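Supplementary Methods S3. Input chains for the assembly prediction are listed below.
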Amino acid sequence: MNRIYRWLGNVGVILALAAGLVAWIFLPWQGVLAVAVALLLWLLLTRGGRLALAAGRIGIAGLPQRWGASSVIVIGIAGVVGVLVAMLAMGEGFKATLDSTGSDDTAIVLRGGSQAETNSVITRDQLPLIASLDGIAKGTDGKPLSSPELSQVVNLPSRSDGTDANVQFRGVGPDAWALRPGLKIVEGRRFGAGLRELVAGRGVQKQFRGLQVGRQLKLGNQMWTVVGIFAASDSHDSELWADADVLGPAYQRQSFQSVTVKLDGKTGFQRLKAALAADPRLKLDVQTTHDYYAKQSEQLTKIINVLGTVIGAIMAIGAVFGALNTMYAAVAGRAREIATMRALGFRGLPVVVAVMLETMLLALLGGLLGAAIAWIVFNGYTVSTLGNNFSQVVFQFKVSPALLWSGLKWALGIGLVGGLFPALRAARLPVTEALRAA
Amino acid sequence: MKYLHLIWAALFRSKTRTFLTLLSVVAAFLLFGMLDSVRVAFNSGGNVTGANRMVVASRLSITQMLPYSLDAQIPTIPGVKQTAFAAWFGGIYRDPKNFFANFSVGPGYLDLYPEFVLPAAQRKAWEADRTGAIVGETLARKFGWKVGDTIPLQATIFPTKGSNDWTFRLDGIYKVNDEKQKGQEQVLLFHWNYFDEANDYVKGRVGWYIIKLDNANSSDRVSKAIDALSANSDHETKTQSEQAFNQAFAKQIGNIGLIVTAIMAAVFFTLLLLTGNTMAQAVRERIPELAVLKTIGFSNRSVLWLLLTEAIVLVVLGGLIGLGLAPLLMKAAVAGSGGFIQLPSGLPSETIIVGVALMLVFGVLAGLLPALRGMRLNIVDALAGR
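Predicted structure tokens for the full assembly:
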């Protein structure tokens, strides 16, 4: 009968644990704070809590003796948290780069159904039609602010190993600088109109060879001079810019690929969209540049997040077994000590809490270690990947506080699972047998 | 071998501990199996042994097309056995999320890709059907296509008669038998003639040429000769082996090998610590028993081997279970994501070999220190519990 009760009890614990873990992952920080405060109050103010604290102190004081075994928990959890945070930071960084590109007050016009600039075509005769549409803001000279653009994919040797990678070479109109106020020249000057000159984003300059101001390079069978470096801290950082009217002929392109326009006030976008839909000559799509770039990060970010979570989960399962192992051994090794405490009158709950406190402390250490490693090694780590336009997007890992926080939550979750069952065993240890055992 | 039962008994002396350690090892090798097979699939890059294929593409950029006229010039170069060409189409099926590669190919393309197994009758039907298409089995299964179905694709680059709607008739479904190349089954192919005639933008242009060499040793000479054909023109070419071409592309997506290595390093470091700790505990607990073994005549060396084998058996057992579970989990992930995530359907032999080697290495590393301790035990001290 006793066995059945115990077995039922274990099943109940497992179910409660699963539910608790799910709730824990979704718990906002206020909730975590509330749980922590409640626990602290219970520890300090009630008799049971003070007993648990006293018992926990004995266990924690013994930690240095079991350092080898305890480090399995710490390092195992640090590994899980480090990998998880680093993976998610990669997705986060990519998303942040594309999300910060573009704005809600400019819009990009592409050929209907083309999805990305590379696939789009805007013919020269469409340009005046587009520029005259309603909803486009006028510049100081009274002309609509619009930049017809052309983007070519060019091969550049990467700095790391010299293999060719695709880089976006964007030809822009004279209004392009006004349309992207976040873009600043940090070295040299802007390219001159009608000249075979180009400016390079800082991201490209760091990832590829031969992009110093004053250097010449051969692109599309012609020599171009690098005259400036710009910084944009968004995905334009991964581009080369030149005059569209020079770039087009160099690649035998008579037409453009997109038109970026400044929107006129809050209703500008709606008006532009309506005007475009009403003109049967123009089969074009329009979206705000913010939407256009944000959409590009969706898929990759989702894949990275799913992968990161799956890998993290499998590692977490491994770490849970490691923690269970260590804590079972710790409980078994201290069986006499625990039995003595129970004989002295420590009840089940304080003993459970004491073992849990010890595990959670180790888990917290592991979580902090993993998060710190991820932050030190990966925050701001620059990489590049193939973006939507068949070309490289340079971005940085972004280890945000939110990611560190969720890493810590994972760590405590692992500690919870890893500590609970050994704690229950400690509380159920038959006192007489444990005392008698050598 | 005759001590196997002894090792087995020692291993299950503490069932909980062995079981938990085993599960950690299973988790680690499960992850290894999955990640490494992704890495292998990613890096293999169409590396078909003996295919001797090279790709001729534009030197300027991947999106630049080449003139059809090269089709007559390239075969005149000595060393070139066969040629074919293809042009990227970039159509989407219903939703951009359903991305798969689709391109038009010239006549004889399939002759260069003997690994695409297409029933002869279907091939004949496809070649006779101007608007016909063939797809790989994986892709057909994903969208539930059957031979005879009409497949609508939305053009993203090439409109036809002012509209983006293209339709193709499915004439055949090909298979690729090599597990490493299963990704090649996610492709739709149709006729370049139809593409050339029906699209509104480009005429007489192809995306890239595939050539087959007489023998692999002439690749340098042939690639120089082909590139010389168009030197200083507006369509300079770059000829490289198919593998180099694919790898250059894969590399741009990211250094998958480095990511996998970094993750596995973290995992295995932890694993080593864990199994090492388990073995140390196991030896510590059994000191009196080991002393008894030595007393009844086991040599120091055989005690060392017993303990070392115990560690190796533990890791190999868990590792094999993990590697065995990996393909199942990958299949579940692919099915569960509705084709959103693409993973190879089986473990490549490379992964299995590396995996088993790693198991042996970790078994030895984890067991070595505890085993040495067991070997050096002094019988008298150990029995006295000192």
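Chain A has two domains: 27-99+297-436, 113-282. Chain A touches chain B through 56 residues (CB under 8 Å).
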